[in-house]
Amino acid sequence: MVQKVLAEYIWIDGQEPTKKLRSKTRVLDLDYVSLKHIPSWTSDGSSTMQADTHRSDIILKPVNLKHDPIRGEPHYLVLCEVYGSNGKPHKSNTRAALKRAAKKFEGSEPWFGIEQEYTLYDRDGVRPLRWPEGAGFPAPQGKYYCGVGSDEVHGRELVEAHLKACLEAKLEIAGINAEVMPAQWEFQVGPLPTPEIADQLWLARWLLYRIGENYGISAKLDPKPIAGDWNGAGAHTNFSTKQMRGTNGIHYIEEACRKLGMRHSEHISVYGADNAKRLSGKHETCDIDTFRWGVSDRGASVRIPLHVANAGQGYLEDRRPAANADPYKVCTAILETVCGKGFSIN
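-> structure tokens emitted (346 positions)
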């Protein structure tokens, strides 16, 4: 009897303004062990905001293959691009534009790292995990960032299981930490080239949601989960090119900062829905209508880390992307602005 493989086809839907992940399982024969052998599949686009009922099929085209840490060997996670019934990339397929930008600027050898913040909730999704019931609030921020102890951190069981799963899937997870608001956490992916960095971030998000099912905990990427004197959630994006990483790279880093400032409004338009609630000028952010860059400045739009400034080479950190931003769009915008003639939403 031929051994079977379970392939979890994962794709990004057409929901606006914030896309969601979808997935379904296909049973394949064991000889499907490389990306080129995984077949395309179809799905009901009318149920994912990607087609109408009269022409409902969308095509799921496999583009990235990772080991499935939930089901174990020999099963796979299969990240897919969405194509329309005409065989062309669907308008919701933002990965296609990133591929073009990556090809255009491959000589610059761009690398990205993304810091994904998120907030944990009970299954009902009403209040952050283990926050007081009703209208009460926990103690003010200050003791929770990188905290230790059940009075300071909530949901570590899911966070650790997620980290382990990402490593087993061979995702380039660089670390995790508890964040400033209680029940808020962060994981980092990269550094990686494009589109791999964005692929892996989407897969890491999927694993977080899926493993959360096992614990009755849901993770959300709301940029400002709680109004008031509480930190929001971002997806700080670290970026470098060959020149920025080389001798006298600080010159190219500073030039990149100036270029990003010239296209500030265009970047904000693709840096996540409801980002204005987070980019208030408070809680380690710059005001959404202001662009500022500086060394070691966590209140700036773009930060040059102190160790980068001291070394005179390295990378910059774009602190503007919201936690719910589409990494394909973020990476495309940065590439076009820093390496090209400028990013435009038109």
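The chain has a mean pLDDT of 93.
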